[in-house]
Amino acid sequence: MAEAYIVGAVRTPVGTKKGALAAVHPADLGAHVLRELVERTGVDPAAVEDVIMGVVSQAGPQALDLARTAWLSAGLPETVPGVTIDRQCGSSQQSIHFAAQGVMSGTQDLVVATGVENMGMVPMGANVQFAIDNDLPLYGEGWIERYGFQEISQFRGAQLMCEKWGYKRERLEEFALESHRRAAAAQEAGYFDSQIAPIAGVSRDEGVRPDTTMEKMAGLKPLREGWELTAAIASQISVGAGALLIASEKAVERHNLTPLARVVQLSLVGDDPVYMLTAPIPATKIALEKAGLSIDDIDVTEINEAFAPVPMSWIDELGADPAKVNPNGGAIALGHPLGATGSVLMTKLVNELHRTGGRYGLQTMCEGGGQANVTIIERV
User: Fold this and answer.
1) Annotated catalytic residue, options 32, 97, 162, 366
2) pLDDT (tens digit, 9 = 90+) per residue, 199-248?
3) Catalytic residue among 89, 97, 162, 180
4) Kind plus residue range of the DSSP H or E element containing 261
5) 4-123+237-255 and 264-379 have identical folds
6) Which enzyme type, at the first EC level (predicted)?
7) In CATH, what class is 264-379?
8) pLDDT tens digits for 83-121?
9) Which end of the chain is less packed: N or C, by CB atoms within 10 Å?
């Protein structure tokens, strides 16, 4: 099997839903990172064989195959096609998988994996609003026969995880506080500067709260009476984009590219769709086994902090070193622009491996429907 290499990775700052980036059209967000990726790698854009973009809420400004419109909005060659995909929160991590698989199969040599989401302009759930407005069911008869009429939501799933693992509010808030502390420290040290392509006058992630405290979080109301969850232990509604260039060994030589990381393992697993957020645990176990690695071999992990119990349970079940998990903060502090998050996390992961000299990195996240992608890479 051919090898697949990450030869470029860039992202926008992650903006807040009411910040400066919320006014930027999603196609222009995507165009910005695509142009920057081409410029940074020096690749001939006409040699790119496909642009695979993750977008979750494919409605309004994020409809009409955003991968294609973003590439064209960037002024890049019309000969390059684009496809937009939805694997919920893992959409642009899946775009990385599809791009790498195209290269590893030998059918492609240069593929862009990207993701975009402007949750300030296109609210979460905008793509299901038609069903709601027209009183149409979101689930068909087969689903209802299997799972009944119970609530299926990320919020209930997170609360169910708190109950299953026995996580109380104070411990969840301690995790959230550490996410902000790590993100603020990384920001102050300039760890993110080289990976970010400033846009709309924004050069830093907007969601980090270096002044947050346990006392401030304790004053928030739970999402529902009797629940452990508050807004403080959930990911932020965000705006952002990221892009990576995946290349074969032949393309690396032909286009004089510099490999940053080698793709080691690509795994995908489904789990209980009611709990929804637990799949990173079994998916990671399978990915490590297939790669012939242990959790101790992983130097840096990026696991999406959709809610604090997701990475907390993953750490507990895998026996991972917490210091190696989201070392520069996660989505609780930095935000979660849905379809863009997979590409943002991979950009962070590649850069952190190079900054620290680590060998193996692992990325995973929970996804709607009870799914999870796991990507293992090796620094080159």
Assistant:
1) 366
2) 999 999 999 999 999 999 999 999 999 999 999 999 999 999 999 999 99
3) 89
4) strand 261-270
5) yes
6) transferase
7) alpha beta
8) 999 999 999 999 999 999 999 999 999 999 999 999 999
9) N
